[in-house]
Amino acid sequence: MNEPRRQYGVASAEGAAIDQGLRQYMLGVYNYMALGVAATGVFSMLLAANPALMATIAGGAMKWVLFAGIMGIGFFAPRIIFSGSKGLAHAMFWSYAALWGVLIAPFIFAFQSAGAAADIYRAFFITATVFGSMSLWGYTTKKDLSGWASFLFMATVGLLVAIIVNAIFFQSGMASLITSSLVVLVFSAVTAYETQMIKSLYQEGGSMNDRAAIFGAFALYGSFVTLFIHILNILGIMRSE
User: Fold this and answer.
1) pLDDT digits over 124-180, tens only?
2) What pLDDT, on a 0 to 100 scale, did the predictor assign at position 57?
3) Taking Cα atoms as reference points, which of 164, 160, 225, 162 lies closest to residue 191?
4) How many CB atoms are located within 10 Å of the residue 172 CB?
5) What count of other Cβ atoms lies within 10 Å of the Cβ of residue 139?
6) Among 169, 198, 184, 195, which Cα is nearest to 226's?
7) Where are the domains of the chain?
8) Could you give the CA distance from residue 202 to residue 200 in angstroms, rounded to a whole number?
């Protein structure tokens, strides 16, 4: 009579331990990501206070060098985080955040110069709302989102190509508005997918949980910043119309 109760008690205790460990793991992911976003914001604001530097970054080839650096880190970071030293994993994350800060700074400067600083804060609030909602859904849903991976990858590559082509050749405001709107839709889905994927990486007592947390913060940070840039772009285009 007592055996099932003992077994049930053990199972419940194990489940509670897993839930507690998972919550701590995900909290670590979000905290680390938030620190990266905060560091990028502060760094961007400080750089944006130097108009000459902003002109150098925005007007020359430097922005494309920065963009290539971000793409390179985004490609190589996952394997380095899981196979290199923990210190190197941290270095990859903070280098990524710093490069995004430099790339975003001219954008911030342009809005400040146009007297539209309020749009920056509005875009951040909208981004936080969209990101938080989609990440929460990705964490709680019972639906398996792994099937989205191929579509989201192809959509991301297609939008990246469209953005680069428009920036170099057409420089169309309408095309920019359309691509930014699509980016917001796609990366909202990416946020949910990544959250579920990061959650699935957790292993009770696993030795790789700390690295998985850094990787999770890296992935979600990239999605948050991408959403912010394109929501801010949409607000800027709508303001100029």
Assistant:
1) 999 999 999 999 999 999 999 999 999 999 999 999 999 999 988 888 999 999 999
2) 86
3) 225
4) 12
5) 14
6) 184
7) 2-240
8) 5
Q: How many helices (H) and strands (E) does the chain have?
A: 8, 0
* % the chain with pLDDT above 90: 76
DSSP annotation of 143 reads S
192 near 135, Cβ under 8 Å?
Answer: yes
Tell me the two tokens of residue 189: 């889905």
Q: How far is CA 26 from CA 150, 197, 223, 227, in A?
A: 25, 11, 16, 21
What is the rounded distance in angstroms from the CA atom of residue 131 to the CA atom of residue 93?
A: 19
- Phi then psi dihedrals of residue 205, to 5 deg: 70, 10
pLDDT of residue 1: 47
Whether the predicted pLDDT of 11 surpasses 50: no
Asked whether 234 and 187 are in contact (CB, 8 A), the reply is no
CA–CA gap between residue 134 and residue 21 (Å, rounded)? 22
Answer for the pair 233, 183: CB distance below 8 angstroms, yes or no.
no
Instruction: Report which of residues 78 and 15 the model is more confident about.
Output: 78
What span, in angstroms and rounded, lies between the C-alpha atoms of 109 and 47? 9
Q: How high is the pLDDT of residue 18?
A: 54
DSSP state of 220: H
Half-sphere exposure of 28 (CA within 13 A, CB side): 17
Distance CA 191, CA 241 (A): 30
Kindly indicate the confidence band of residue 206, based on its pLDDT and cuts at 50, 70 and 90: confident
Tokens for 113?
């110069």
